[in-house]
Structures are given as structure tokens and as C-alpha cells.
Design a protein that fits this description.
By secondary structure, this protein is α+β, with helices and mostly antiparallel strands. β3 and β4 form a beta hairpin. The chain is globular and about 50 Å long.
């Protein structure tokens, strides 16, 4: 389970960070690679927001599946750069992994970003499909969300302002 929200900002606006349900682990930093948009095939649309669209994509050579977040004209250049800078700095097993920026071969538009693909969707969809979670599962979900938020707040000094089931992403390891 991972945190995911609508816009990435330091303190006032919500940030787009998913939290993953994993055992406790330490978090560190790394720098991701940059790719070209022509290296990916769009498989489906995962979601639409006020600032852009998220697609499920596959790398043409490696066949790795990722989420590709694109931006529309309502996202400012500074907002996009701020989101990329924050995502680049985060390496925590409770937060969806950032895989780098993607440059359009035409040079048009903002730099889309590649994120870890969370195949089970949001916690909201999981509950909608499967019904109420057990008390034990709710406790584990809460623990892992708090581990991710603790990392964001105490290590990165970031406040996530949009925690809700629709913004908590889940993979099949949950």
C-alpha cells in the first residue's frame, strides 16, 4: 500500500506520493535514470486529475510495467520541477518508487514522470471490490501508512495533505 495524492508540494498543497505496505525497513536516497517517451507503449489510462493523466505503460525492450504521469497546461513548470525534485529525493519502501523523468521525442509538453505501477489500484477500489477489511488488516495498513508518513515528515520535512483511501495505492503483496 502506498500514498498517492493529486499534486506534489512541500507543505500547503497535497503531494503525489504512494505508500506501500511492506515490513519495516530503512529509507535512503538515490538518483533515477531518464528515459525517452518513444521507449514506452501506453497500455491503458489509470486515472485523470486536474493537473494531468496517469497511464499504465510498458517499456518496449525490458517489458517492465510502470505508471506514467503526464501534465496538462494547468500544471506550472515550477510545480512539475518541485514534484520531480521531491520524488527524486525519496527512497522509502512505504512510498511508491520514482523511476525518473521521461522526455518527449518531440520536445513538447512537461516532462512526464515514471512511477512504480501498483497493480491492485487504490485502497478505495480494493475495499469497493472485496468489502470491509479485517481489523488485523486495518491495523497493518495503518501501521504502514504511518511508517511512510513518518519518513516524509521526519526525514524529508514534507507534509502529505491528502491522505484518503483513493490516494493509497496497493499491489498484490498486500
Amino acid at each position: 500500500l502506498k500514498l498517492f495524492s493529486q499534486a506534489m508540494v512541500l507543505t500547503i498543497k497535497p503531494i503525489h506520493l504512494p505508500l506501500q505496505i511492506l515490513p519495516a525497513a530503512s529509507c535512503s536516497t538515490h538518483k533515477p535514470a531518464v528515459a525517452s517517451l518513444s521507449q514506452f507503449e501506453i497500455l491503458e489510462t489509470l486515472g485523470r486529475g486536474s493537473k494531468g493523466i496517469v497511464y499504465k505503460v510498458v517499456h518496449n525492450v525490458t517489458r517492465d510495467v510502470r505508471a506514467l504521469k503526464t501534465y496538462n497546461n494547468s500544471a506550472t513548470y515550477d510545480e512539475v520541477l518541485r514534484e520531480i525534485a521531491i520524488l527524486e529525493s525519496i527512497d522509502c519502501p512505504y512510498i511508491t518508487q520514482f523511476h525518473g523523468t521521461v522526455f518527449s521525442d518531440s520536445g513538447a509538453g512537461w516532462m512526464p514522470i515514471l512511477m512504480e505501477y501498483m497493480e491492485a489500484g487504490s485502497l478505495q477500489n480494493l475495499v469497493k471490490i472485496n468489502g470491509t477489511l479485517s481489523e488485523k488488516m486495518i491495523a497493518e495498513v495503518a501501521r504502514r501508512i504511518l511508517m511512510g508518513l513518518d519518513y516524509l515528515h521526519n526525514t524529508k520535512h514534507i507534509v502529505h495533505c491528502d491522505i484518503k483511501p483513493a490516494n493509497l495505492l496497493v499491489n498484490h503483496n498486500m
